């Protein structure tokens, strides 16, 4: 009897193991079949179709991940998170109000959120509600841009005030059509400003590698830019190159200024978000790493391997974003990133202190009656110093995208700010000395 029970038990175990193996094999076969069938071309998607739900019929896994960009997953130690409501950067760092005195960023400036919020946050910012913002901003802040391009030409979109344009677009954020071909899902560039900048460099995006495109689709928006002339044409200042010195040379060549500083009178440049320009100077970029490798790493969803369209800070996803290349513990990776960001933050504070001293000294010189022409050199140096500080503080990696270049740029910011301070003080003392010797 006992022997029979043993035999029955062994047979039962084999049966259970067989069932388990069968289930595993069935699941493998199912996932393999799913992977081979995906994506199913169930509907035709138009060239300029901006409704992501229609794209989602053919690409449901991608849409599911993309819709997570509206998730308020919190903030990272140096920004880069998504919170609801968005964090106020001016309250976090009051110096920015002084640095950007007399321009809209000194009134309202919040932490960036996910791609879902691109138009929502633009619609709500005081920079749009209290100032005459150009329609050119919808190049990046509206998922309806391609649809709008079927109704208006690009020049008309750029020059039309945003307040007049906003009623023609929805609150739709970044969509599939902005970066993908609707038939093949291949990456494409849809923004005229980047196409023009690449053409000026002799580059045709249609001939570039897929890996290059995995950064360039991000460079459609994550770059420095300005609005040129009365037509408010959106332009990337890349005619001399992508470094801060090359961008500065571009602006100086055209005598361009975004605004006149309210305190110093210097003609200033407001740097936007030059993630791409800083990243191309990095070791990661030189080794062939693309933006998408870290911000949209590959994930497996069922039997499908896709690029993760929940675009977010790699600090929230270190396993997929970093450990494919860096085979070290997650906590060690996190500490390495934060140590770089901490050093950058410390250099930013030192550059802010130098800039504050320069601004105060120029103001003191003006109050002492120093003529404008005698302060021209101090104003020029103020412009140069603040461009470099702004290049790093407005770039959304706190230096991580290229640590050595970020440190170099901030060292120059400190140097130029101290030169501006010295120049203004010399002008002030010279003026006071002249006044004292007058009969």
3D architecture notes:
- The protein has 439 residues and is mainly alpha-helical.
- It contains 21 helices and 8 strands.
- It has helices spanning 2-37, 52-58, 60-66, 89-92, 95-99, 118-124, 126-129, 138-141, 145-149, 154-159, 162-165, 192-200, 210-216, 244-254, 275-279, 283-286, 291-295, 318-321, 330-367, 376-393, 403-437, and strands at residues 74-76, 79-82, 226-228, 233-235, 259-260, 267-268, 298-301, 304-307.
- The strands form 4 sheets. The chain has a two-stranded antiparallel sheet. A two-stranded antiparallel ribbon has the order 3-4. A two-stranded antiparallel sheet has the order 5-6.
- Helix 19 (330-367) runs antiparallel to helix 20, helix 19 (330-367) packs parallel to helix 21 (403-437) and helix 20 (376-393) packs antiparallel against helix 21.
- The N and C termini lie far apart (129 Å).
- Residues 26-35 have low confidence and may be disordered.
Keywords summarizing the entry:
439 residues, mainly alpha, two-stranded antiparallel ribbon, 51% helix, globular
């Amino acid at each position: 009897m006992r022997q029979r029970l043993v035999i029955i038990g062994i047979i039962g175990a084999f049966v259970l193991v067989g069932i388990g193996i069968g289930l595993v094999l069935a699941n493998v076969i199912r996932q393999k079949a799913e992977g081979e069938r995906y994506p199913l071309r169930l509907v035709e998607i138009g060239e300029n179709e901006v409704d992501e739900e229609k794209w989602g019929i053919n690409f449901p896994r991608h849409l599911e991940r993309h819709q997570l960009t509206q998730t308020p997953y919190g903030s990272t130690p140096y920004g880069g998170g998504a919170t609801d409501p968005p964090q106020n950067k001016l309250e976090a760092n009051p110096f920015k109000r002084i640095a950007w005195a007399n321009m809209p960023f000194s009134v309202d400036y919040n932490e960036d959120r996910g791609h879902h919020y691109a138009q929502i946050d633009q619609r709500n910012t005081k920079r749009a509600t209290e100032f005459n913002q150009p329609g050119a901003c919808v190049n990046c802040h509206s998922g309806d841009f391609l649809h709008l391009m079927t109704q208006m030409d690009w020049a008309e979109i750029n020059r039309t005030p945003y307040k007049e344009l906003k009623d023609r677009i929805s609150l739709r954020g970044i969509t599939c059509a902005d970066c993908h071909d609707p038939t093949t899902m291949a990456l494409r560039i849809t923004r005229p400003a980047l196409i023009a900048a690449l053409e000026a460099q002799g580059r045709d995006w249609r001939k570039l590698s897929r890996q290059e495109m995995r950064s360039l689709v991000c460079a459609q928006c994550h770059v420095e830019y300005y609005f040129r002339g009365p037509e408010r044409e959106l332009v990337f200042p890349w005619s001399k190159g992508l470094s801060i010195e090359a961008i500065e040379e571009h602006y100086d060549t055209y005598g361009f200024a975004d605004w006149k500083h309210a305190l110093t009178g210097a003609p200033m440049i407001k740097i936007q978000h030059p993630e791409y320009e800083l990243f191309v100077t990095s070791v990661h970029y030189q080794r062939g790493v693309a933006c998408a490798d870290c911000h949209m790493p590959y994930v497996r969803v069922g039997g499908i391997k896709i690029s993760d369209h929940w675009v977010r800070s790699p600090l929230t996803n270190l396993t997929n974003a970093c450990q494919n290349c860096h085979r070290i513990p997650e906590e060690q990776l996190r500490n390495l990133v934060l140590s770089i960001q901490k050093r950058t933050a410390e250099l930013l504070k030192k550059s802010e202190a130098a800039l504050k001293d320069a601004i105060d000294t120029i103001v003191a010189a003006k109050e002492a009656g120093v003529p404008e022409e005698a302060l021209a050199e101090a104003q020029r140096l103020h412009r140069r110093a603040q461009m470099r500080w702004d290049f790093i503080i407005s770039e959304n990696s706190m230096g991580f995208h290229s640590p050595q270049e970020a440190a170099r740029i901030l060292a120059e910011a400190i140097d130029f700010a101290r030169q501006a301070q010295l120049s203004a003080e010399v002008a002030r003392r010279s003026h006071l000395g002249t006044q004292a010797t007058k009969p």
